[in-house]
Amino acid sequence: MRKFGWILLNILMLGIPYLYAKHKAKQISNVSNTKLQVSTKFNFDINLLIDTLGGKENIISSSATMSTLKINLKSAQILTKESFSKFKINGFMKNNNQIILVFGDNAQAINDALILNACQDHTLEK
Question: What are phi and psi of 80, to 5 degrees?
């Protein structure tokens, strides 16, 4: 009978905290993240990017997705992947006069800065 009491005591002392921790873990796992984490900082001067693209007069339009920056240019003949090495891009594609730069989660912030700086002379549509 003494052994049965010892087993019952262990079940109560260890089982109840285990069930409580399992219940709390289930509650935490059911919480969903509704906010999208996007970086708003980038570590280069936007004017340097504009100069690399051929200046404000060479840029027609730009748009951004979560991680890519798409820029339409008047002329993209001189642009190569090596010319963007100082910007730490993750990918580069060139198709006729459009280039696609993969920056990461700060592509939207770079696009906003590009539009703001290139729109000072009204060369780029918002």
Answer: -130, 170
